[in-house]
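Lab notebook, bench 4. Still working through the backlog of constructs that have no structural model yet. Next entry is a single chain of 241 residues. Request: give me the structure tokens for it.
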Amino acid sequence: MIALRVIARLLDYPDETLFTHHREMVEALEAASELNASQRERLAGFIAEFCARPLLDVQADYCELFDRGRATSLLLFEHVHGESRDRGQAMVDLLEQYRADGLELNAKELPDFLPLYLEYLASLDSARACSGLTDVAPILALLAARLHQRQSRYAQLFDLLLALSGVGLAADDLSPQINKESRDDTPAALDAVWEEEQIKFLGEQGCASAQQAAHQRRFADAVVPQYLNVAEMTTSTGRLS
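Model written out:
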């Protein structure tokens, strides 16, 4: 799917190459039969508006949105497993899936990075690509809802991915859940997370449990847990659930 390859590039860290060749991306969409005319127009419009801004501004916005806090992380397993041990096994399983289809990653690439996963799906036939999107549709909907809440242009890309998945799941379906969440990218929330990590480290070195418990009570409501129960949202038993 050409659209998956284009969206993958747009969700990766923006660089000079992207801006230089953005018109070629728009031209490539003319052959994207998986999109209807309206969807092609929307995606082309996103690219034009995206690349009309100064590159440094776009890069700063990207880091602010995707690298600050966990709620909008582009690491898929962050939204399913968090820091649990299951995340490691899920990484191994996904790597094996890639290798079975002839994709080898270098040491710097995490297998659950969404742009990489979309690149992988784009290399498959349409049926398998759609199945791969179905597997992660609940995560895509979660991210879409959070990005809409933050009035980010990137939400349009996730809406398109959901449409391509064909599962009938949309960002609006998760709006009630998202509206109850605390933002995890505010200075107070980020400080709370940092202090909690410090307490955990000291606790491992012999810090009194009472001190740790007091700290956890203090920050219990600072950040709502950002994890997703995929099993409750879909009957799919995809590899990423």
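Notes after review: The two ends are 23 Å apart (CA to CA). DSSP finds 13 helices and no strands in the chain. Flag for follow-up if needed.
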